């Protein structure tokens, strides 16, 4: 064996990353060349060259548990790996909370359109009595208020404040650094299951301002691409089961 050969990692020592071990083994048996190429690409962020393993796994928890994804198997796999890499319960619970409140993008998208169409139709807007909005005020003090929220605040300030009460604590608890919060937020917004451009731009801007490097942000994007492996984890396993049915001759 040459020195060059010895410097290459053994195939069995490569990280699984986003892969289900059983699906990967089946895929390798069917199409080793493509499986090797896809595994090399998708597991690159696990090399530790840019982000620490703990952060890699936390990003994967975020993209798996997001309300736009809800991949139970991947969430469990990456939560387990994150805990093994030193993540805490509070960190993982914070990601679950972030994954929950990202559903506000339904209003970010829909409320401006509602206001425009209501104006075009001459429809009356709902009236609301003046009421304190302490949670919204807190989000503004934290610098977490997004102008995209102004339209639904105008439509229903009391409900908006109730929603923001669920978000203010997430960002004020100090579980993550500002940079980590922004990197995780990028993952939520840029994931191919979501692709929310306004939030992606806002959080990339925030990540750079918080000290993140371009390489670190690119690593988050690569982890979101690695999430595509979920198609193989699901499809290969089902195909193997269907091929094993008697009708297919085993």
From TrEMBL:
- Where does the record place the Carboxymuconolactone decarboxylase-like domain? 46-103, 157-226
Q: Name one Pfam family in it.
A: CMD
Identify the species of origin: Xanthobacter tagetidis
The name on file for this protein is Carboxymuconolactone decarboxylase-like domain-containing protein
Q: Which SUPFAM superfamilies match?
A: AhpD-like (SSF69118)
Q: What GO MF annotations does this protein's record show?
A: peroxiredoxin activity
């Amino acid at each position: 064996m040459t020195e060059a050969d010895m410097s290459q990692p053994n195939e069995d020592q490569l990280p699984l990353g986003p892969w289900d071990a059983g699906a990967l083994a089946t895929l390798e048996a069917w199409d080793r060349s493509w499986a090797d190429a896809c595994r090399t690409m998708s597991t690159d962020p696990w090399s530790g060259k840019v982000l620490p393993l703990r952060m890699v796994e936390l990003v994967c928890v975020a993209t798996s548990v997001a309300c736009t994804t809800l991949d139970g198997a991947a969430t469990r796999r990456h939560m387990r790996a994150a805990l093994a890499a030193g993540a805490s319960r509070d960190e993982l619970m914070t990601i679950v909370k972030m994954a929950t409140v990202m559903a506000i993008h339904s209003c970010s998208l829909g409320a401006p359109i509602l206001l425009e169409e209501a104006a075009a139709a001459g429809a009356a807007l709902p009236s609301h009595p003046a009421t304190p909005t302490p949670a919204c005020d807190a989000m503004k003090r934290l610098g977490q208020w997004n102008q995209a929220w102004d339209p639904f605040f105008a439509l229903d300030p009391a409900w908006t404040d109730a929603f923001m009460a669920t978000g203010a604590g997430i960002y004020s608890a100090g579980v993550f650094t500002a940079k980590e919060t922004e990197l995780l937020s990028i993952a939520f917004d840029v994931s191919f299951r979501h692709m929310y451009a306004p939030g992606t731009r806002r959080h990339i801007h925030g990540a750079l301002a918080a000290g993140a490097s371009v390489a670190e942000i690119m690593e988050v994007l690569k982890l979101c691409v690695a999430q595509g492996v979920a198609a193989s984890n699901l499809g290969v396993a089902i195909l193997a089961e269907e091929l094993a049915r008697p009708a297919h001759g085993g």
